[in-house]
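Here is one such protein, fold included:

. . .
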Amino acid sequence: MDPITALGIAANVAQFLDFGSRLVSLTKEVAGEGVTVDVAHLSIITSDLVDINISIQRELQPASTNPANKPIPEEEALYDLAKQCNEVAMKLIACLQSVTSQGNSNRIWQSVWQALRTIWNKDELDGLARKLVEYREQLSLRILLLLNSHRAEQNDRLDATILDALHFRAVNARRTAIPPAHQKTFQWAFNGSMGSTKRWDSLHDWLRGGSGCYWINGKAGSGKSTLMKFLHESSETTRLLKAWAGGSELIVASFFFWYAGTSLQKSQAGMLRSLLLEVLTRRPFLIPVLFPDVCRSILSKQLSGPIELSFSELLKAFSTFVASVSNGVKVCFIIDGLDEYDGDPNELAELLSGSTNSHSVKILLSSRPIPACVQAFSNCPSLRLQDLTHKDVVHYVEEKLGRHRLMLGLEMNEPGSTKQLVNAISSKASGVLLWVVLAVRSLIGGLQDYDTTPDLLQKLEELPPDLEKLYDHMLGSMNPRNRCQVPRFTRTTR
């Protein structure tokens, strides 16, 4: 049942209850005072009551003939009340018609009273009056419950429309595509600064109690996205952020820019849609607050079907949210790859840095040290990733190269070869994890060609330390059939 139909039934029932109550009350008063009323006037009263009852029956008819429209409990309660009123109305109509049918213009309301008493005794008539009052009280409650039910249903449809407009197919594709961190790597991120000289600001302390922005920066291929995915998925991150939130509700929302992806994966609009989608999925009651004009247009039927939110609407909604986060909520945004944003990086950096003015909102972000980010975040807590991944490089090389069956065989024949290669790779890598991955892959190819330790060291020496030049080197030495795979790796170096 739509709200208009429900209100139509309620209005007709209310009209009957008001009419019936006044009829019974006046009948009893006239019976006591002897006031005369002619039959013509009584006929009009009877006709009005018949019309009201017909309206009630008409409103009830669709519900009984359309089983596909199964009413909700609140609607059923209103139907039952209308049916009860209909039964009373039929008895009153019969009574009034029995009086008017006599056609005597000198008949008085005393006759109505007498006619009613032929159907009900005095106690029953008094009971009718009380019943009409009871029905009126029930009607108020039924209308309130029904409107609340329809409001909830309407809100659900409204929420679904806005959330559908925010969602896009590849909203989590970039984060999902990033390979997980290698076992034992990045565990240092939850420790304090390493060494006697402060080389980085404690991420552990910032997650647990810091504010503003924390900037993870590093060379292309140094593993920033892998670290950000690791932090996003780590239960330790959640534990520390919950400690920061205290008794407040914690909301964590993320976005991973990707220059090689779709337009939404590398745009500010895509970021805003992703962050707002996560926030409003958790707190849908904010939808009318953040998108008031859109919601009004949907409710007034000016907008129907799927809608498209403009960038200005998204930006206004995001700005409103971060400016109005209450003391009962703490929000942490995790945003990776600001340097992969396909737009003015100064605008993006300004938006994000300005979004943390409230102590209830903070942002963990990453990028290469491009000028816009250096200018915006150089005074924020930060770390430079390539300075901190030496142990991660050693773990990876020992796992992937040192435990390779061919390397184990070489180690038996040439003891100490593994250590030499591990040291040489970690020294030349300069903390760039992607360079390490490709270098290890190249050395495994050498093992398959039965290279000796000196051969492998020579091969390693010939590998360019610059990641882009390493791609060119590998491309020149690859089988032409495999060269089509290189662009897939190249996309990750921005």
Summary: The beta strands are 212-217, 249-256, 329-336, 361-367, 382-384. DSSP finds 22 helices and five strands in the chain. The chain has three domains: 3-159, 173-386, 390-493.
